Amino acid sequence: MGVATNSSPPGAQALSTEFRYPSVDPGIPALDVDALLAAHQELIDRIKLCFGMDRACFDQTILPLLRRYATYVHLLPCTADNYFNEPGGLLRIGLETAFFALQGTDAHIFSGRATITERRHLEPRWRLATFVGGLCCELHRPLSHVIVTDEAGNEWSPYLRPLTGWLRHHQVKRYFLKWRPNAVESRSLGLFALPHVVSAETLQDLATGNTQIVPHLLAAIAGTPIYRDHNVLESLVRRALALVIDRFLLASAERYGKPQLGSHLERYLVDALRRLAASNPGWTPNTEKSRVWYGPDGMFMVWPGSADDIRKLLEADQLPGIPKAPETILEVLLTAGVLTAQEDGKATWLIHPPGNKTALEAVKLSAPAILFAESDKPPQAFANPLLTPPALAAHAAAVAPAVSTKPAPQPLPSTDESAKGSSRKRPRATPPPISPTPEAPSPQHPKQLALLDPPPAAPADEAPAPTPITPRPDEPQQARLLAPLRLPVTVRDALAAIVATLSGPEAEWAAKPTDDGLFVPLAALTARKVAPPAATRSLSEVGMLAEPSPISRHFQGQEVVGVLIDKRHVIGLPSQQKEAV
User: Distance between the two ends of the chain, CA-based, in angstroms?
Assistant: First the structure.
């Protein structure tokens, strides 16, 4: 037998220390502040150029602010598995948001009611405060989302000192992270970390000659609205942060695979809800034609009308990446726990506000404080429930078989007897009237709404029996896409536009119906500004592809490459219509 020698190839020893089974957390190295900022020198130079300062002035006013921020966050990631989730992500998102927010100040006028002389003195302070608001917009995360420890398990106390100071004091070479499960985003916690980043001298300089800049800055960092004044600073920071996150997610989709789209939208949607509740008269609870109804069984928002108001408000803010479809907004709010679904999983509810003759489709807030947390006077709830009253449900269950199964209506008790029975069961003082005959069922019950549409006015003794509406065989059904809500909006809209071409002349079709589905050329996706690799990946993840990878088919006289959509996700295909006829 030969003698064993250590003849491992070069680099094998290094690989054995880097890759171990089971895997070992290597930790994050404790670098000094100069090394942290040197990695972002190009962005820092752009910040200096945007301020328009010389080197001496920049080093005296702005650079200490950047050093204090880097000292506090060090190489912490911003999130565990979403945007800026790599070491140094929290430092990078702060620098980028501060830069874009500072750029946005060039297009806005602060202190518009002040004189020119006053604005000349206040404008530099507003720009600096906007920069600070963008830099510290995610400063709450070390206090609420992550736990930092050394090798021995000793924890960093983020309320007491910056992370770099803790590492230096305990001579820590590498530190480790533990993410808190189900952490709730509490942006107001950033105010407790703000003194570690912004010195008292800087705040005093911002407050010189005015009483607005510091309150607007603190409101922007804490995420609280100022109801009596428009916070331009907060609007610039919010728009800059949305832009930075959207750019990161798009870059991650191109380089690293699937990003977690939509999970950062919760803050903007909740902020829009609170702004609408504070400023829009149509969102005053329990008023005529209101979007918000509040009863003992919860607070509800009329849907999808509320989604339209949210979309218009956020479009006016010019935030990138904001969803436009009510279904997408509903999915994001449900996932974030802002809204509550029914026990059977249905997202919407049917409510019966007083004075409404028909039921309204609405979504239910998980807590009324989501809308009115900062209000001085919380709204008063109705004394009676808004959901389907038990008396109406029992009456609808009694008359539904007569309407749906019997061709001729069956006589019911006289009007006097019905009125007596109704008076014993009514839970409210003024419920909608219940007809004593089955010919005109109450529209308050969801089952009856689904059975038939309200017929034209007719005498009670000659109301026709309801008949199901079926499409005529000579009328072709319009082609329509059936896509899961998890499909990104851009891909869904592009596919819907492609499917819509099948309702026109065959020469204008953008896709080809086949026996096993719908063949969509990749060129059709590119023409609608959708990247084919990203679209293919998204379609595969939601299970819409009949073939897992792109295929080649003959289309419009040539061989092209495309994807095959499963036929169960498209209704009204021309081939399906021919078979039906």
Answer: 82
Q: What is the 3-state secondary structure (H, E, C) of 397-422?
A: HHHHHHHHCCCCCCCCCCHHHHHHHH
Residue 514 DSSP SS3: strand
User: Which amino acid type is present at position 237?
Assistant: V
Q: Position of tokens 């670098």?
A: 31
Helix, strand, coil abundance in the chain, percent, nearest 5: 45, 10, 45
Contact 499, 481 (CB under 8 A): yes
Instruction: Show the tokens assigned to 211.
Output: 């009483």
Q: Over 90: is that where the pLDDT of 58 sits?
A: yes
Distances 466 to 62, 408, 410 between C-alpha atoms, Å: 74, 10, 14
Q: DSSP string of 363-380?
A: EEES-THHHHSS-SSPPP
- Give the angle 10-11-12 at the CA atoms, nearest 5°: 95
Phi, psi of 565 (to 5 degrees): -80, 135
Going through 164-273 in order, the beta strands assigned E by DSSP cover 174-179
- Closest to 122 in 3D by CA, of 111, 107, 135, 137: 111
Distance CA 101, CA 286 (A): 39
Are residues 43 and 99 in contact, defined by beta-carbon separation less than 8 angstroms?
Answer: yes
Of the listed ranges 64-78, 302-316, 323-337, 417-431, the one predicted with least confidence: 417-431
Exposure string over 354-376, b if 16+ CB within 10 A, otherwise e? eeeeebbebbbbeebebbbeeee
The DSSP bridge partners found for residue 390 are: none
- Is the model's pTM score more than 0.85? no
Instruction: For residue 114, name the pLDDT band (cuts at 50, 70, 90).
Output: low
Closest listed residue to residue 481, CA positions, set 451, 518, 508, 516: 518
Residue 122: helix, strand or coil by DSSP?
Answer: helix
Q: Which amino acid is at 175?
A: Y
Rounded to 10 degrees, the C-alpha dihedral 299/446/423/414 comes to 170
- Predicted confidence (pLDDT) per residue in 495-530, tens digit: 888 988 888 888 888 999 988 889 999 888 888 888
Q: Name the 3-class secondary structure at 570.
A: strand
Model confidence band, residue 164 (pLDDT cutoffs 50, 70, 90): very high
Residue 35: count of CB within 10 angstroms of its CB: 11
CB atoms within 10 A of CB 32: 14
Which among 28-42, 346-360, 378-392, 554-568 has the top mean pLDDT?
A: 28-42
